[in-house]
Design goal:
This protein is mainly α and about 210 residues long. It has helices at about 10-25, 30-35, 40-45, 50-80, 85-105, 105-115, 125-145, 155-175, 180-200; strands spanning about 150, 205. A two-stranded antiparallel ribbon has the order 1-2.
Length: about 210
């Protein structure tokens, strides 16, 4: 195959296979280019580095998903005033299902981001998502308290972070273990059911609603 016949999509497809098999850190650039009939020198006429190829595979997906993730929480907070625990339960379920819909639409890109990005500029992508959710949890507890609720446990930055890590670790495991979309939906529903009853058991309402 002559160089003139090589296209960027062919390089990206070869790179994707190598990254998915070995992860970014251990992926060999020479193998990526060899699979499409290029020399390493010729490769640099298309991309400047292995990092640039990885960015071409996941960059847009990561940016869109992070923006969507932030917007979901912002919209919920706008509606939160006057909403109780049940609203949070519904939000958690909806968020989980919508997140899985998003992920399974671009499944391979998310496998790269969550499972294969170590050593790349995206290796902290999941941590970014965790920070967004942890910050939201802190604000949500504060807003609930302003509505007359009281959390029996002491929510601080560390606890919020741990809870958010657990949530995304569950998503990571589903992707790493190659769950089907149907399996993932069933598991995420069960996880949020458990979480809701955990929250529900630790939040008391000190308002006329309970007669206290």
């Amino acid at each position: 195959m002559g160089n003139s016949e090589i296209t960027r999509p062919q390089i990206l497809e070869s790179a994707k296979k190598e990254f998915l098999e070995k992860g970014y850190k251990d992926a060999a650039l020479r193998k990526i280019v060899k699979q499409v009939g290029l020399t390493t020198g010729a490769f640099y006429g298309y991309y400047s580095s292995k990092e640039e190829v990885f960015d071409a595979l996941v960059g847009k997906t990561a940016k869109r998903f992070l923006a969507w993730h932030c917007e979901v929480y912002r919209r919920f907070e706008e509606k939160q005033l006057g909403m109780g625990k049940k609203a949070f339960e519904m939000f958690q379920k909806e968020l989980g299902l919508r997140m899985l819909e998003y992920i399974y639409q671009e499944y391979e890109a998310f496998r790269l981001l969550f499972c294969c990005s170590k050593g790349s500029s995206y290796e902290n992508f999941m941590e970014q998502l965790v920070e967004v959710q942890a910050d939201f949890l802190l604000r949500w507890v504060k807003n609930m308290e302003q509505q007359g609720y009281h959390l029996r446990i002491q929510m601080d930055e560390k606890l919020a972070h741990v809870i958010a890590v657990q949530n995304f670790q569950a998503v990571y495991e589903m992707i790493a273990l190659r769950f089907s979309k149907k399996q993932a939906i069933a598991y995420i529903y069960s996880i949020y059911q458990i979480q809701y009853y955990g929250w529900s058991g630790n939040i008391e309402l000190w308002e006329a609603e309970t007669g206290t």
